[in-house]
């Protein structure tokens, strides 16, 4: 039986997610917005019976068994951890920091019977599901290089907000790069050991953001990941990712995997392949046309991935009579909070690399850093 | 009046160059090959009256006024410097090291009345000539990012030789990357301050190269250049270059320049552009079809660039009655030996970066390194 859903967020993703949920038969009972007004307007538009700006009102809502959290990254951890504590299943977007993710991982481990997945939707896109299958079957032989590029218009909101602030989780690397980092670990079945990157904010001010305000989040990012093998060896595969959001009027989303005997390329939502010695590129999976809701602000691969994730959620919950129970099978491919922690760790290593100019190791946090650490350092400095 | 030409080399470029020269009215009087047999065969095939394996026979040939040197990089310096010393005009491909180039620069400065250009032919390709013009006119606004990718089949020769050896000037970075480095400095009018790169040899052995022999030259290379601004500042533009020669059956040659108000992309020999706020990509320069000689081993952008360079040489020499004199105008855009030294310096900095993992500064050699330097170091070590 399908669970009742509570949605956090009034942004472009929430706006697309609600119709997708409804189309699959989920009932959306409650909507949370940062202000009463935002919540009221979107709830009215999407026909959601209850709206609020107080998070507990959604989390404690008796008809809500599944919470979908699509809010600014800096607020995600608090809601996600609380929802699990109250006994609700959670799907959420990325959080702001690795420490946040670590706390979410701890909560998820504490409630293993609850669903807790990252809403990193590219894994669910049929083109990438097929790509992974072909990689496992050896279509390209041994993977050598993954080459990803995403080009598009600015990611900034119309008004000044978290999308402009690097520390709030804004920027191409955090917003789009994280989905790519997750995707590449899913496709190749391995993780980055060392990363190198370069971030830039070419457009620091525009018509809407000016005066003393400046954009600090990246609009161009470029990073490399050495994956597989050991951290010290030079073997394994090289992943290169180029993100450029200074290209209004275009959207390029290309993921290429080159191996010893062939290659696979996903362009947008279509998958192409070519074997060495073959006659040329073949279309392996076409786009069968999108019939879901329109979403100007959301690129098609993310939109279709979101749609596939909702379908997987439906299958997962339909398997049980009790509306809070779910089956692992249909959502087994979804990124866990552990995967989210890995992704955020890579994001932060790339940012460190952009500052230091050096290759940075990817070391997953294994215990929470001492919250008094900075204080201790400050005291230490005073003593000397 | 057109000068008589002597050609060094029997490889794929020489094989294409001779018909191009003849088509423009140049007389090719002499051909040099590493062995008598190679020289004999190609001279017969291309109808060149004189062939030899002794370089002086071409350099001292009384009908030869222009020497075109397309031989393995490690041999280029010796022939080029000698040719200038004898008073011949020189067009040559890249040399093996920055020290070689420095010696060539010294010779070229000593004989300023002689033509001395690098045969880096991408500058002459009409798409790039148009691209540069549009960049100067401000089509893209302020340049932010250059993004170049070249994908193709293996660059290795059929048999073991210099193409397999990194130290002999083999590999994607040295062979193809150097043409891209030169092109980007031509297009943007600025030079790299700092570079970061990663080289890999994914295919170290194949059906022809096996046993104790291993390929040491890169078949995958990936580098970034920070250009313009000063070496210490983080401003200026970012160039990213991806070269992958593990992709048999395909050839991708894409040069994209993204700026604050638009972008330009050269795909193969065609040029496209898009202005921010415009209706979409427009074709700015199409391919009018290639009617010159076929060359399986040479990608079309290089082939057409070579053809345009030969046309420019014709114009340059036609401007004068005396067959050794030439006009600067038509070949003013050609890369000088100084440009060649810059390119080789960048290539070597990228190689250093691939070893060190760090950003490396591009510092052009201003005096010849002491040839006894290594000896001194060895003596020093013995003393301690």
Structural commentary:
The structure is a homodimer of 384-residue chains. Chain A contains eleven helices and 15 strands. Chain A is an alpha/beta fold and 384 residues long. The longest helix of chain A has 20 residues, at 337-356. Chain A is globular and about 60 Å long.
Binned, the helix content of chain A reads 25-40%
Query: Which stretches of chain A are poorly predicted, pLDDT < 50 over at least 5 residues?
Result: none
Q: What is the global morphology of chain A?
A: globular
User: If interface size is counted as residues with C-beta under 8 Å from the partner's C-beta, which chains form the largest one?
Assistant: A-B, 33 and 33 residues
DSSP helical segment count of chain A = 11
- From the N-terminal CA to the C-terminal CA of chain A, the straight-line distance is 64 Å
Strand content of chain A: 15-25%
Mean pLDDT of chain A: 90
Radius of gyration of chain A, taken over Cα atoms and rounded to an integer in Å:
21 Å
Structural class of chain A: alpha/beta
**Number of DSSP strand runs of chain A:** 15
Oligomer: homodimer
Keywords (chains A, B): Oxidoreductase, Signal
Family (chains A, B): Belongs to the Gfo/Idh/MocA family.
Protein name (chains A, B): Glucose-fructose oxidoreductase domain-containing protein 2
Pfam families (chains A, B): GFO_IDH_MocA, GFO_IDH_MocA_C3
């Amino acid at each position: 039986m399908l669970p009742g859903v509570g949605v956090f967020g009034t942004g472009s993703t929430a706006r697309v997610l609600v119709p997708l949920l409804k189309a699959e038969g989920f009932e959306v009972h409650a909507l949370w917005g940062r202000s009463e007004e935002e919540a009221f307007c979107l709830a009215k538009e999407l026909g959601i019976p209850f709206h609020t700006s107080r998070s507990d009102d959604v989390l404690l809502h008796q008809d809500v068994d599944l919470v979908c959290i699509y809010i600014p990254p800096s607020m995600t951890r608090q809601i996600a951890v609380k929802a699990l504590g109250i006994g609700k299943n959670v799907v959420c977007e990325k959080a702001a920091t690795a420490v946040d993710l670590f706390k979410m991982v701890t909560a998820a481990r504490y409630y293993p019977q609850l669903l807790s997945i990252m809403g990193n939707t590219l894994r669910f896109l049929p083109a990438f599901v097929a790509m992974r299958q072909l990689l496992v079957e050896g279509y390209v032989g041994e993977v050598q290089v993954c080459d990803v590029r995403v080009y598009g218009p600015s990611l900034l909101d119309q008004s000044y907000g978290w999308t402009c602030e690097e520390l709030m989780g804004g920027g191409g690397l955090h917003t789009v790069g994280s989905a790519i980092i997750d995707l590449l670990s899913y496709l190749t079945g391995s993780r980055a050991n060392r990363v190198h990157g370069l971030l830039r904010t070419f457009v620091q001010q525009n018509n809407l953001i000016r005066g003393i305000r400046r954009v600090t989040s990246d609009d161009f990012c470029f990073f490399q990941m050495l994956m597989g093998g050991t951290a010290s060896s030079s073997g394994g595969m090289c992943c290169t990712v180029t993100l450029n959001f200074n290209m209004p009027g275009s959207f390029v989303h290309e993921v290429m995997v080159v191996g010893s005997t062939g290659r696979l390329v996903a362009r947008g939502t279509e998958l192409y392949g070519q074997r060495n010695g073959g006659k040329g590129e073949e279309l392996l999976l076409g786009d069968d046309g999108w019939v879901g809701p329109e979403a100007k602000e959301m690129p098609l691969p993310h939109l279709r991935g979101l749609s596939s994730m909702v379908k997987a959620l439906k299958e997962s919950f339909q398997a049980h009579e009790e509306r809070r129970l779910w089956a692992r099978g249909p959502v087994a491919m979804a990124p866990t909070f552990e995967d989210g922690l890995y992704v955020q760790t890579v994001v932060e290593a790339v940012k460190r690399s952009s500052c230091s100019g050096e290759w940075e190791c990817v070391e997953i946090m294994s215990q929470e850093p001492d919250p008094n650490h900075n204080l201790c350092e400050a005291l230490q400095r005073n003593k000397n």
